[in-house]
Amino acid sequence: MDKLLKLGRDVSLLWRGYGASYLGGIKNTLLLALVATAIGCVIGLVCGILQTIPCAKTDRPFKRFFLGLIRVLVRVYVEVFRGTPMVLQAVFIFYGLPYFTDNAMRFSSVWAAAILIVSINTGAYMAESVRGGILSIDPGQTEGAKAIGMTHVQTMTSVILPQALRNIMPQIGNNFIINVKDTSVMFIISFTEFFAFHRYITGVNNMYFPSAAIEMLGYLCMTLAASFLLRWIERRMDGSSSYELVQQDALTMTAGTWSLPDAKGGR
Amino acid sequence: MAETILEVRHLSKSFGSQTVLRDVDFSVRTGDVTSIIGASGSGKSTLLRCINLLETPDSGEILFRGENVARPGFSAPAYRAKVGMVFQSFNLFNNMTVLENCVVGQVRVLRRSREQARANALRYLDRVGMAPYVNARPRQLSGGQKQRVAIARALAMEPELLLFDEPTSALDPEMVGEVLSVMRALAAEGMTMLVVTHEMAFARDVSRRVVFMDKGVICEQGSPEAIFSDPQREETRSFLARFRQS
Ligand SMILES: Nc1ncnc2c1ncn2[C@@H]1O[C@H](COP(=O)(O)OP(=O)(O)OP(=O)(O)O)[C@@H](O)[C@H]1O
Ligand SMILES: [Mg+2]
Fold it and tell me: Which CA distances in Å does A96 have to A85, A88, A91, A100, A115?
């Protein structure tokens, strides 16, 4: 019992001394995870659209070659970034750029580097999720869209992706939560997120365990908040389960004249 | 003499080793209703899907207003906007309301303004008797209602030719009538339609021409009177006899 009291005292001591640092770390972590997940989703969507472009036998050879090339490139991208640890990717990209350009180019800010690395890593995972999400929508809707003259991109953006996105919301949430935690490896390129402050602070006062307790609690709060938020967004996306009749059905019920419904039907 | 809007010449299609369409030849004239009848698996859907380029024919030509649309490199979307299609399984967009289903194509493909598209969609929804349901989503509708929305969606694009692939086959018997009556009304207004159907009464009473398909070939075609009262081929006779029995 008195151990717990001691922990409480230590934690409050730490918090009074370094609370602002911890909060700053939380802010950086959340910002990085949020921005990188969003960009990663966009990358995933683009890859998903590119991978599902239909390829008919009657298409010109050039187009077929091009589509094949795109598919191969996307596959390579997915396999490479899904198959290597993000810490290594960070080192590889952050130090690789100046190495290959003889220091002519380097990352001007560690933020840009961190966002880039986490984004393309997330994108590799999202590409597969999006592809699965697209495949889960019944092909009839794609045909329905094509039959009224929509192009592949129009079909995707208007019909398929909104539904695929809803279906993969749990995976997007998963990726976000993983990013909140895994951005901690970005200390390797001296990005100061939440976990980096643990390292700095314990470097000056070696209160490892109390600081770790703060970190645990901090991460848990972030991910729990994210979970709740995601559930809420999902419910919003599902919309209402009922609708209002504007008037009677003229065919199955008695025939009647019908006036314009109010403007709420539009988007 | 009405002009020919669609002409299919020597169309063939196989899936792997199975030949589904063999040297199919026929044409559709503007303002006519043409019914395609035939046993299950005779290739009727495949023919319709080839005409709309949802399947790629192996050989042959599909001339739409004289232009071969089945040639390599032909851009399908602009052509499909002029040829509507109604599917057996409705294929409505589940992420949209009834109204949005009928608006999206006009806005994105025909580049109409949203207001114009809305007004237009409402007009066609009214015509199929679905105006009260503009705010409903497809999953909240019965099969017959879904099919009427699908017809309105196709009509809203103001197509020059409308293809139907067994529009009533997925419906409960009591809903077949509401869809057929919409189609009858369209026919009466002079809409050019090509209808794959198992509704023999519809084929006989509404269509100008009837095409009977058997095992991937057109076995017999002609006026409804000729096909139903005086079929020349043995295959046609036995197909119709089977239908009369059931
Ligand atoms: N995508 C496909 N791949 C392989 N075979 C197919 C494909 N689509 C259709 N077939 C085959 O082609 C043949 C003709 O099919 P189709 O759907 O055109 O017949 P149908 O006349 O429309 O029959 P129904 O009246 O049952 O709808 C069938 O034997 C079917 O198995
Ligand atoms: Mg069929």
Answer: 16, 11, 7, 6, 16
Complex ipTM: 0.91
Contact assignment for A243 to B136 by CB distance below 8 Å = yes
DSSP code, position A188: G
Would you list the DSSP string of B194-215?
Answer: EEE-S-HHHHHHH-SEEEEEET
| Residues from chain B contacting residue A239 (CB–CB below 8 Å) | 137
Query: How much of chain B exceeds pLDDT 90, in percent?
Result: 92
Which protein residues have their CB within 5 A of the ion that is ligand 2?
B 45
The rounded distance, in Å, linking the Cα atoms of A187 and A139 is 45
Rounded to the nearest integer, the mean pLDDT of chain A is 86
CB within 8 Å: A147 and B154: yes
How many angstroms separate the most distant Cα atoms in chain B?
Answer: 55
Interacting residues of A196 by C-beta distance below 8 A, sequence separation 6+? A25, A184, A186, A187, A190
The three state secondary structure string of A209-225 is: HHHHHHHHHHHHHHHHH
**What is the side-by-side strand order in the sheet with B161-165?**
B83-86, B161-165, B193-196, B33-38, B209-214, B217-222
Instruction: Give B237 or B2, the one with higher predicted confidence.
Output: B237
DSSP reduced 3-state for A207:
coil
Q: Which of B183, B202, B201, B182 is nearest to B193 (CA)?
A: B183
**Mean pLDDT calculated for residue range A199-220:** 89
